[in-house]
Amino acid sequence: MHISELTLTNYRNYEKQHVTFENKVNVILGENAQGKTNIMEAIYVLALAKSHRTSRDKDLICWDQEYAKIEGRLQKANGPISMEVIISSKGKKVKVNRLEQRKLSEYIGTANVVMFAPEDLNLVKGSPQVRRRFIDMEIGQINPVYLHHLSKYQKILQQRNHLLRDLQKKRQDLTMLDVLTAQLIESAAKIIERRFQFLQFLQTWAQKVHHDISRGLEKLIIEYKPSVKVSESMDLSRIEGVLEDSFANVKEKEIMRGTSLVGPHRDDLGFLVNGKDVQTFGSQGQQRTTALSLKLAEIELIKAKVGEYPILLLDDVLSELDDYRQSHLLNTIQGKVQTFVTTTSVEGIDHETLNEAATYEVQQGAITKLK
Prior knowledge:
CATH class of the largest domain: Mainly Alpha
Oligomer: single chain
Largest sheet: 6 strands, antiparallel
CATH superfamily of the largest domain: RecF/RecN/SMC, N-terminal domain
Shape: globular
Order of helices and strands: EEEHEEEEHEHHHEHEEHHEHEHEE
Strand order of the largest sheet: 2-1-4-5-6-7
Number of domains: 2
């Protein structure tokens, strides 16, 4: 799949912009603060209906404007598809072939993207929240039903935490807490089950990539670290049973603290290289190789699941990688994946893939294709 056209209206620093892209590497050149990352973000939002940089949709709307609109033409194996995201103070609308989609889960998955930005190098050594976001967004692209369960879980969690804060101040009937706990467990078990399944697939691809980048010297293992004692061998009902016991055990502690202490919102991932925890004992090079392996594994996993390669967004990340990892990344994607690369300069990156790329220049919210 690839994006052939992108139109932005009142998006960030773009008032009105239409641009066509090629089904190969597209290099977007420009100084900082000109709007390079905004182009990448717009493609990401077009695919996933949310930004990778902010949780506030209003940040995406151009100053003093009432709405922002992203339109894209996606070319897939079975034909072209038009996609549209409209953001306003009233909320968000998404359309496929001009038909509004009532649920985001019906929209997400139409286009698949993999984003790799400097902050993704913190995937290994960053906070658990970063890793949870990574796994949630990637599962959501290939399994939109997962996003439905996740959204439902987050709404119930919010209600439950609100109730726990009230109970912390004034002890009252716990019937409503038990009702919300039962609802939370139902969604939580489905999320945990899907995470186990996804990570098994991800590890299969990531191990191979990591083996190649490390020249066969390292073996990568990805560990799912749930906040409750469950394993990938358990079926849904057993996971629910463990969750029920866990919530019963921490019930008084949760009331005392005014927050939910177990569940998928407290899960984490761990990474072992040759049996050692990369987060604690790995060198910066090993941490970066692990992050790169995960991103390249995503590309192959999506291809295996949906039948087409996703679109790859490399936002100012090449400058963060050494020559060897740069070359491995560019060799891997060559001729397979439509790729967008932002950079202030291609000097110092002498690679066949970039030499044959389509090049664009961004200046003050305007993007121009260079001949």
